[in-house]
Design goal:
This protein is α+β, with helices and mostly antiparallel strands and 84 residues long. It has one domain. 29% of the residues lie in helices and 14% in strands. It contains two helices and two strands; from the N terminus they run αββα. Strands 1-2 form a two-stranded antiparallel sheet. The protein is extended. It starts with a helix and ends in a 14-residue tail after the last helix. The mean pLDDT is 88.
Length: 84
């Protein structure tokens, strides 16, 4: 099953190349489903959500934030995820 991750990564890299080079049909607005049991792909159209906070009719997410600043973590500093 480890090869599945490599396969999906290759598909993603291929999408990036198609986008950068401006060739082929992008999977924009579609979900690509891979069935590893029979090695088949299926495309499902995903409609745009008009209520989406990022790309909907009234977006509320209008800029990126600095997550290191937001989480109060300095660059290179490890997060302490210990429990207890």
């Amino acid at each position: 099953m480890g090869a599945v991750a490599g396969l999906i990564g290759t598909v993603q890299a291929n999408e990036v190349l198609k986008y950068i080079l401006g060739i082929g049909n992008l999977l924009t607005g579609k979900l690509l489903v891979f069935n590893a049991l029979n090695s088949s792909f299926r495309q499902v159209k995903v409609p745009k959500d008009p209520r989406c906070q990022l790309c909907g009719e009234k977006p509320t997410v209008t800029e990126l934030i600095d997550y290191e600043e937001f989480c109060q973590v300095r660059s290179g500093q490890a997060l302490d995820l210990s429990v207890g």
